[in-house]
Design goal:
The complex is a heterodimer of chains A (243) and B (209). Helix content of chain A is 53%, strand content 15%. Chain A is of the alpha+beta class and 243 residues long. Chain B has a five-stranded antiparallel sheet, sandwiched between helices. In chain B, helix 8 crosses helix 10. Classes of the chains: A alpha+beta (243), B alpha+beta (209).
């Protein structure tokens, strides 16, 4: 992170705080957050889990969404850095995966197999409430984060959480639940869309996701909206079917 | 279905509940309710063309209205006074859906103002999931009533949803139909849904072959 300019850092913080927009979309916001978090520390991948009403952690967004990475998030309802950060409210920093098999017997070997060397997690918290965790995977051993980087990344997570809670608080307390449940269902739509496009174009689901996301970005449309059209009306996205 | 409505009322200390079946192309109807008053309130939304259930279906997310006198009159100017006349003070609408596959909405009515507690919300989501299971079972002829718990447990696995998208394209059917076909296949072959989905995603199995 030492290589990041103050201007860049400031603009990322403003972007993450800007949730009071008319057409706020939770999933798009979380995708943006994981992208920024990953690039800040030049990590291999970043992803984010939010807790639902049942206290279960659900994978919501990743800087990358390959099958192996998603699996690593699905494991984390049993064990892993996200679960620890969520439960303790404290960051989990610079854990060397090669020596973490005792701490996370299932998670650590799978993460190593996926090509990662280190792992970190930051709670998404506002005062005493923890709503999820931001997970960062490094491909170098240990040192993605210097001592100075940790408070900056935690501050980013904090600002994002304040933004999210604010976005909901200005309306009603129920808005939090409504939005989270809506986003959980949007996650399912994204998976259905990956499968549909993979079948249509005879490609893998990872490649399907890359194409859906690239299409959404290039056409300045929401990921959720594009994914839904892939499932319900693929013909309306000619640019996606004729690359 | 009515058993689910009655159990929902009991568990959420509600005054009534209803399940409506709806489709994206506008077909809709009341499927079951806990009592005659709830049936009337449930039908009201379709007659008037507005209400929490219609909004929850359109937005694909729950619409939780803890107090019908607090702003709801602007959102649903005709529905709100009519529902209040029927004694309803709070309405909680939960979409019945699996991603892009939309089956309908479950409404929970209360004769008093106030939000659902965290525990009540958890229960409500569980009842909504059970209703989705029950509706899918109905569509495949009610043959696999026993595997509901397993399907719920696996409910959030990415592979199952990816397989649904693939089968939709393979068979040229809607996403909702694809869900039913995968479940029917798993049942007929006596295999776990999870394993069938994995075979589909890894291209070892096609349902059109």
């Amino acid at each position: 992170m030492s290589g990041v300019s103050a201007e860049r850092l400031a603009s990322i913080f403003v972007e993450v705080a800007d949730t009071l927009v008319d057409e706020f979309d939770l999933l798009d916001f979380l995708h943006m957050l994981t992208d920024r978090a990953r690039s800040l520390v030049d990590a291999a991948a970043a992803g984010l889990m939010l807790a639902d009403e049942r206290g279960r952690l659900d994978f919501m967004a990743g800087s990358d969404e390959n099958v192996r990475l998603i699996e690593l998030f699905q494991l984390q309802n049993d064990q892993g850095p996200c679960l620890e950060a969520y439960r303790t409210g404290q960051p989990v920093i610079n854990i060397d995966l090669a020596s973490a098999a005792g701490r996370w017997p299932r998670f650590a070997p799978r993460a190593s197999e996926a090509g990662f060397r280190s792992v970190h997690a930051f709670p998404l918290r506002l005062r005493s409430q923890v709503i999820g965790a931001l997970n960062i995977f490094g491909s170098t051993t240990g040192g993605d984060f210097s001592a100075a980087d940790v408070p900056i990344m935690q501050a980013l997570a904090d600002v994002a959480t304040i933004g999210l809670m604010q976005e909901r608080a200005i309306r009603r307390s129920e808005a939090l639940t409504e939005q989270l449940q809506g986003a959980l269902n949007s996650r399912i739509i994204i998976e259905q869309a990956k499968g549909a496009l993979a079948q249509v174009q005879d490609i893998g689901v990872d490649e399907a996701f890359r194409r859906i996301r690239a299409y959404a970005r290039n056409h300045n449309r929401r990921l959720t909206e594009v994914a839904e059209l892939v499932v319900t009306d693929l013909a309306s996205l000619p640019g996606l079917t004729r690359p | 279905m009515q058993r689910i409505c009655l159990a929902t009322v009991e568990a959420l200390s509600a005054s009534g509940s209803g399940i409506s079946v709806m489709t994206a192309d506008g077909m809709r109807g009341v499927c079951a309710t806990s009592d005659p008053v709830s049936e009337r309130v449930e039908e009201l939304q379709f007659i008037l063309g507005e209400g929490p259930c219609i909004d929850a279906f359109a937005a694909r997310r729950p619409i939780l209205t803890a107090d019908l006198s607090d702003g709801a009159g602007f959102r649903w100017p005709v529905y709100t006074p009519a529902a209040r006349d029927a004694g309803v003070r709070a309405v909680f609408a939960f979409p019945l859906q699996v991603g892009a596959a939309r089956l309908g909405v479950m409404d929970v009515f209360r004769d008093r103002v106030g939000p659902l507690t965290g525990t009540e919300l958890q229960l409500a989501f569980t009842f909504a999931e059970l209703t989705v299971e029950a509706l899918l079972n109905l569509q495949q002829g009610d043959i696999s009533a026993g595997d509901g718990a397993m399907a719920l447990d696996f409910g959030r696995r990415a592979e199952l949803f990816q397989a649904q998208g693939m089968v939709m394209v393979q068979l040229g059917v809607s996403i909702g139909e694809a869900l039913v076909r995968i479940r029917a296949y798993a049942f007929a072959e006596n295999r776990r849904l999870e394993d069938v989905a994995r075979d589909i995603v890894q291209r070892r199995l096609r349902l059109d072959g």
